[in-house]
Design brief:
It is built from five helices and seven strands; from the N terminus they run E-H-H-H-E-E-E-H-E-H-E-E. The protein has helices spanning 14-28, 35-42, 47-55, 94-108, 123-128; strands at 5-8, 60-66, 69-77, 80-86, 113-119, 132-141, 144-154. The protein has a seven-stranded mixed sheet with strand order 1-2-3-4-5-7-6. Helix 1 (14-28) packs across helix 3 (47-55).
C-alpha cells in the first residue's frame, strides 16, 4: 500500500473535503451522537464553505493523500486545531500524520499550546497523542448544541 502524502489543500480540493467530512462524521461519530445531531451538524456543510475557509476564513487545511485520493484533512485556525477528519475506510494512519503535521505548522507560527474541541468519539485518539482534557463544552451546529471536550497539548 502506498504511503500518505501530506500537502496544503487548495480550493480545487473543496468537493473532496466536503464529501470526506460528511462520510467521516456519519461513520465515526454515530454512537457518540444521535443520527439527528449528526444530520444537524452536516446540514450547512458544502464545498463553498471549504473554499471560503481556505481563501477568506483564515484556515490552513492540510490534506492527506494516498494514491491521488484525499483520505483525510486537518484544519488549523490561529492556535486551534479546528478539525481533523479521515476517510473511515482508507485513512488508517492518516490521522496520526495529519495531527503531527498540524502540530508542526502551529509550532512554526510560534504557538506553544495547541487547543481543540474534541468530538466525544475522538477523545481517546487525542489523549493517546498527549492532549489533556480541560472542560466539557458545546458547539452549535445546524441549530443544535453538540457536546465536545475542550483539550490542550503543550508543544515543545
Amino acid at each position: 500500500m502506498a504511503a500518505f502524502t501530506i500537502r496544503p489543500a487548495t480550493p480545487a480540493d473543496a468537493e473532496a473535503l466536503c464529501a470526506l467530512h460528511m462520510a467521516s462524521v456519519r461513520a465515526l461519530c454515530l454512537g457518540a451522537y444521535t443520527a439527528d445531531e449528526i444530520e444537524a451538524w452536516l446540514r450547512d456543510r458544502d464545498p463553498q464553505g471549504f473554499r471560503h475557509a481556505m481563501t477568506d476564513g483564515g484556515e490552513t487545511i492540510l490534506v492527506a493523500e494516498r494514491e491521488d485520493a484525499v483520505v483525510g484533512f486537518a484544519s488549523i485556525k490561529e492556535t486551534m486545531l479546528f478539525g481533523l477528519y479521515v476517510d473511515p475506510a482508507k485513512g488508517r494512519g492518516a490521522g496520526h500524520l495529519l495531527l503531527q503535521a498540524a502540530e508542526d505548522e502551529v509550532r512554526r507560527r510560534g504557538v506553544s499550546v495547541l487547543s481543540l474541541q474534541a468530538t466525544l468519539n475522538a477523545v481517546p485518539f487525542y489523549r493517546q497523542h498527549g492532549f489533556m482534557r480541560q472542560q466539557r463544552s458545546t458547539v452549535r451546529r445546524g441549530g443544535r448544541d453538540l457536546a465536545v471536550l475542550d483539550m490542550t497539548k503543550p508543544l515543545s
